């Protein structure tokens, strides 16, 4: 390059040095140009008067010194390039398919299918090996907002699918995979998306920082979890904890005037943040109650008991009602199962009845506050709270327990009856029910199972209880999404537990069904307790068969031996017989027992089964 060319480049000081007045020579000598900083090379640029560095002059690059410049790592650069290449490939694929299909059509007919405004056409989406056209994406979003949104109405039904994908790809795909659970136009959509969705889910959570819209995605997937067969594979509680953490990192719990945002938060975003924080607490509390774990929700911070901080934002009435009911769930956990002085969190025996009566009075006040004219979803949510509240009666002193057990029986029957009434009315309730509704159905079933087959049965209408029980088993089959998910397995194992009661498995150990060995899972202790005894009974049957076969044949039984026979149980529909030698049958019990950390510690002999 000639000296005249160097002089020409050196004269462009006003455009290349973008930071205003000249500084002293010492500071100028320490700052490199953007290109040299990117490559981590020594730079001889002079800022005042500006003179391009020798490297930029030699390579004929634009030599600039910018204070805000940040290096881009090679991995990030290559990843961005790869994403851009993948996006271009998808666009090319869609364009090629569209042109091929249009080639076979007459021009007037093709013109009829053109969108009047290109901006209103939903983009096609790809997750892993699954491609969804814009039309399919539209149908899935319509499915979600029609069938699922009423149970947790915190998203905007008027927003486009592209809008949600722009907010967060995880949010867009969460809506799609939930809608795909029962999607009529693609029966295998849930199976096709699950693996890639899980990769997207965990990769998104592992990144920092996350926008608060990720909290919305976690709200959805915790409300309608992916089907699972075992407890370790069900990450709902873990995700709900992460959801609260991400919400706090995005300071959703702060008043607007105390936000740490550099930009001004407009009114719509303020409302969106309040609504997301409210939904986040509702979902976190429901998840904790459903699984019997400590609550991650915090209703006292910002939300408050009277929601005065939420009043300016005109939140949906359903959300406000859900908040009040969720607060009652939290009160049940803290008042009845939150005593630090007891390993199980239970109050002293002489304090249990007063604590139970106090929470019952709070429930009555809540019923009066909500009034009789409440929506279907709110009523079911409220009745589920009544089931969880009265589940505490298993721990009341025997002298005062009778009235509480009668309350539990009525609460379980009422919840089941109301769910079935709504299912008969609308026909889609069970297929699209939330996780807390499903888990409350489990609680009602196990409560009836214990009450009907105990000495307390003389005080209740057994026939009414059996009718409600059978209706609940039918409901489980309708709730089931896959043939091996929790609902389908429970629909088989609960009747098997009744068979154990009829055959006297529990009487052999001198255990009253109303006496719980498992006491560390709050309002669902009786669920875990029932399944624990189910597993013990299966093991006892297996050992008996082993001994019998060894005596008769001189060898251990094989997998080809016939299944167990199941006696007829009056008033109960027949179910598929079970094979105790099926190892997967035993192993699948860990959906509720896991590593037996919540089980009786004197039953170590059970562990080798798993």
Automatic annotation (TrEMBL):
Residue runs in coiled coils: 71-98
Listed GO biological process terms: DNA-templated transcription
Domain Zn(2)-C6 fungal-type: 32-65
Main localization, broad class: nucleus
Annotated compartments: Nucleus
GO cellular component: nucleus
PROSITE patterns xrefs: ZN2_CY6_FUNGAL_1, ZN2_CY6_FUNGAL_2
Region listing for Disordered, in residue ranges: 1-22, 545-568
Keyword terms, alphabetized: Coiled coil, DNA-binding, Metal-binding, Nucleus, Transcription, Transcription regulation, Zinc
One Pfam family linked to the record: Fungal_trans
Record InterPro entries: prtT, XnlR_reg_dom, Zn2-C6_fun-type_DNA-bd_sf, Zn2Cys6_DnaBD
GO molecular function, one term: zinc ion binding
Entry-linked PANTHER family: FINGER DOMAIN PROTEIN, PUTATIVE-RELATED, REGULATORY PROTEIN LEU3
Protein name stated in the entry: Zn(2)-C6 fungal-type domain-containing protein
